[in-house]
Amino acid sequence: MSVQDQDQSPARRICLGTIATAHGVRGLVKILFHGDDPSLLDGTAYTSETKSDTLTITMKNSMGKYWLAEIGGVNDRDAALELRGTKLWIDRERLPEIDDEDEFYLDDLIGLAVRTADGKDAGKVIAVDNFGAGDLLEIKPLAGDAYYLPFTKDNVPGVNLDKGIVTISSAEGK
Asked: What is the pTM of this model?
Protein backbone atom coordinates (compact mmCIF):
# COMPACT_ATOMS: atom_id res chain seq x y z
CA MET A 1 0.00 0.00 0.00
CA SER A 2 1.41 3.39 -0.94
CA VAL A 3 1.45 6.43 1.33
CA GLN A 4 -1.15 8.03 -0.90
CA ASP A 5 -3.50 5.06 -0.41
CA GLN A 6 -3.10 5.33 3.36
CA ASP A 7 -3.95 9.05 3.33
CA GLN A 8 -7.21 8.33 1.49
CA SER A 9 -8.45 5.72 3.96
CA PRO A 10 -11.60 6.76 5.83
CA ALA A 11 -11.26 8.21 9.30
CA ARG A 12 -12.10 5.94 12.22
CA ARG A 13 -15.77 6.28 13.09
CA ILE A 14 -17.77 5.86 16.26
CA CYS A 15 -21.43 4.76 16.34
CA LEU A 16 -23.29 7.32 18.46
CA GLY A 17 -26.88 6.35 17.85
CA THR A 18 -29.51 4.23 16.16
CA ILE A 19 -32.74 5.42 14.59
CA ALA A 20 -35.38 3.52 16.57
CA THR A 21 -38.60 4.47 14.80
CA ALA A 22 -40.72 7.27 13.33
CA HIS A 23 -42.46 9.83 15.50
CA GLY A 24 -45.65 11.41 14.26
CA VAL A 25 -46.60 11.94 10.62
CA ARG A 26 -44.14 14.68 9.55
CA GLY A 27 -41.01 12.56 9.27
CA LEU A 28 -39.46 13.01 12.70
CA VAL A 29 -37.55 10.06 14.17
CA LYS A 30 -36.64 8.78 17.61
CA ILE A 31 -32.92 8.15 18.05
CA LEU A 32 -31.46 5.90 20.72
CA PHE A 33 -28.32 7.90 21.55
CA HIS A 34 -25.17 6.10 22.77
CA GLY A 35 -23.27 8.77 24.64
CA ASP A 36 -23.37 11.84 26.85
CA ASP A 37 -23.61 14.71 24.34
CA PRO A 38 -26.41 14.38 21.76
CA SER A 39 -25.25 17.58 20.04
CA LEU A 40 -22.46 15.45 18.50
CA LEU A 41 -25.11 14.04 16.12
CA ASP A 42 -26.36 17.52 15.17
CA GLY A 43 -25.28 18.05 11.57
CA THR A 44 -23.96 15.31 9.34
CA ALA A 45 -23.74 11.67 10.39
CA TYR A 46 -22.65 8.65 8.40
CA THR A 47 -24.96 5.65 8.00
CA SER A 48 -22.07 3.18 7.88
CA GLU A 49 -18.76 2.64 9.59
CA THR A 50 -16.92 2.73 6.26
CA LYS A 51 -19.17 4.02 3.45
CA SER A 52 -19.73 7.68 2.58
CA ASP A 53 -23.58 7.81 2.78
CA THR A 54 -24.74 10.50 5.21
CA LEU A 55 -27.84 11.98 6.78
CA THR A 56 -28.32 15.58 7.89
CA ILE A 57 -29.69 15.52 11.43
CA THR A 58 -31.25 18.25 13.55
CA MET A 59 -31.54 17.07 17.14
CA LYS A 60 -34.71 18.40 18.80
CA ASN A 61 -35.25 17.28 22.39
CA SER A 62 -35.04 14.39 24.81
CA MET A 63 -37.93 11.92 25.04
CA GLY A 64 -36.83 9.73 27.94
CA LYS A 65 -34.31 7.24 26.60
CA TYR A 66 -34.73 8.57 23.03
CA TRP A 67 -33.97 11.86 21.29
CA LEU A 68 -36.39 13.38 18.82
CA ALA A 69 -34.70 14.44 15.58
CA GLU A 70 -35.41 15.76 12.13
CA ILE A 71 -33.66 14.14 9.17
CA GLY A 72 -33.02 16.30 6.09
CA GLY A 73 -35.26 15.31 3.18
CA VAL A 74 -37.50 13.06 5.31
CA ASN A 75 -40.95 14.65 5.34
CA ASP A 76 -43.41 11.88 6.14
CA ARG A 77 -43.87 8.89 8.42
CA ASP A 78 -43.27 6.29 5.68
CA ALA A 79 -39.84 7.75 4.82
CA ALA A 80 -38.97 7.94 8.53
CA LEU A 81 -40.00 4.30 9.05
CA GLU A 82 -37.62 3.22 6.27
CA LEU A 83 -34.73 4.52 8.41
CA ARG A 84 -35.52 2.26 11.39
CA GLY A 85 -32.41 0.47 12.60
CA THR A 86 -30.02 2.85 10.80
CA LYS A 87 -26.83 3.29 12.82
CA LEU A 88 -25.44 6.83 13.02
CA TRP A 89 -21.67 7.28 12.92
CA ILE A 90 -19.35 10.27 13.34
CA ASP A 91 -15.62 10.64 12.80
CA ARG A 92 -13.68 9.80 15.97
CA GLU A 93 -11.91 13.18 15.77
CA ARG A 94 -15.23 14.96 16.53
CA LEU A 95 -15.28 13.54 20.06
CA PRO A 96 -13.97 15.92 22.71
CA GLU A 97 -10.54 15.25 24.18
CA ILE A 98 -10.49 13.66 27.64
CA ASP A 99 -8.19 15.35 30.14
CA ASP A 100 -8.65 12.97 33.09
CA GLU A 101 -6.29 9.97 32.88
CA ASP A 102 -8.88 7.82 34.68
CA GLU A 103 -11.47 8.40 31.92
CA PHE A 104 -11.52 7.01 28.41
CA TYR A 105 -13.83 6.14 25.57
CA LEU A 106 -15.01 2.52 25.62
CA ASP A 107 -14.02 2.23 21.96
CA ASP A 108 -10.40 2.80 23.03
CA LEU A 109 -10.46 -0.54 24.88
CA ILE A 110 -10.86 -2.55 21.67
CA GLY A 111 -7.60 -4.28 20.79
CA LEU A 112 -6.04 -3.93 24.25
CA ALA A 113 -4.33 -6.89 25.89
CA VAL A 114 -6.18 -8.50 28.80
CA ARG A 115 -4.29 -9.63 31.88
CA THR A 116 -5.51 -11.11 35.13
CA ALA A 117 -4.83 -9.31 38.41
CA ASP A 118 -1.90 -11.70 39.03
CA GLY A 119 -0.32 -10.68 35.69
CA LYS A 120 -1.21 -13.66 33.47
CA ASP A 121 -2.11 -13.04 29.82
CA ALA A 122 -5.82 -13.64 29.33
CA GLY A 123 -6.39 -12.56 25.72
CA LYS A 124 -7.54 -9.42 23.99
CA VAL A 125 -10.61 -7.11 24.04
CA ILE A 126 -12.35 -7.59 20.69
CA ALA A 127 -15.52 -5.54 21.30
CA VAL A 128 -17.44 -3.51 23.85
CA ASP A 129 -21.20 -4.06 23.72
CA ASN A 130 -24.23 -2.98 25.67
CA PHE A 131 -27.42 -4.96 25.18
CA GLY A 132 -29.33 -2.88 27.73
CA ALA A 133 -28.08 -4.10 31.10
CA GLY A 134 -24.65 -2.45 31.11
CA ASP A 135 -21.37 -2.46 29.23
CA LEU A 136 -19.76 -5.80 28.43
CA LEU A 137 -16.21 -6.47 27.30
CA GLU A 138 -15.99 -9.21 24.69
CA ILE A 139 -12.72 -10.99 25.34
CA LYS A 140 -10.99 -13.43 23.01
CA PRO A 141 -8.87 -15.63 25.29
CA LEU A 142 -5.57 -17.15 24.21
CA ALA A 143 -7.45 -20.43 23.58
CA GLY A 144 -11.14 -21.16 23.24
CA ASP A 145 -14.21 -19.13 22.44
CA ALA A 146 -14.71 -15.43 23.11
CA TYR A 147 -16.75 -14.52 26.18
CA TYR A 148 -18.42 -11.48 27.70
CA LEU A 149 -17.33 -9.92 30.97
CA PRO A 150 -19.47 -7.24 32.64
CA PHE A 151 -17.46 -4.00 32.70
CA THR A 152 -17.65 -3.33 36.43
CA LYS A 153 -14.99 -2.26 38.92
CA ASP A 154 -15.10 -5.76 40.51
CA ASN A 155 -14.50 -7.53 37.19
CA VAL A 156 -12.20 -4.93 35.62
CA PRO A 157 -10.16 -3.28 38.37
CA GLY A 158 -7.77 -1.51 36.01
CA VAL A 159 -7.35 0.03 32.57
CA ASN A 160 -4.00 1.39 31.45
CA LEU A 161 -4.31 2.92 27.97
CA ASP A 162 -0.64 3.97 27.91
CA LYS A 163 0.49 0.37 28.40
CA GLY A 164 -2.39 -1.08 26.34
CA ILE A 165 -3.62 -3.33 29.15
CA VAL A 166 -7.01 -4.10 30.67
CA THR A 167 -6.72 -5.88 34.02
CA ILE A 168 -9.49 -8.32 34.94
CA SER A 169 -10.05 -9.98 38.29
CA SER A 170 -10.06 -13.49 36.79
CA ALA A 171 -10.29 -15.12 33.37
CA GLU A 172 -13.82 -16.31 32.47
CA GLY A 173 -14.90 -16.09 36.08
CA LYS A 174 -12.32 -18.70 37.16
From this structure: 0.70
Cβ contacts of 102 within 8 Å, gap of 6 or more: none
**77: amino acid identity, one letter:** R
Options 3.10.410.10, 2.40.30.60, 1.10.150.290, 2.130.10.10; CATH of 3-94: 2.40.30.60
How do the pLDDT tens digits run along the chain, 174 residues long?
Answer: 333 344 444 578 888 999 999 999 999 999 999 888 899 999 999 999 899 999 999 999 999 889 999 999 999 999 999 999 999 999 988 888 887 777 788 888 999 999 999 989 999 999 988 777 788 999 999 999 999 999 999 999 999 988 999 999 986 544
User: Which CATH number does 106-173 carry?
Assistant: 2.30.30.240
Separation of alpha carbons 34 and 65, rounded Å: 10
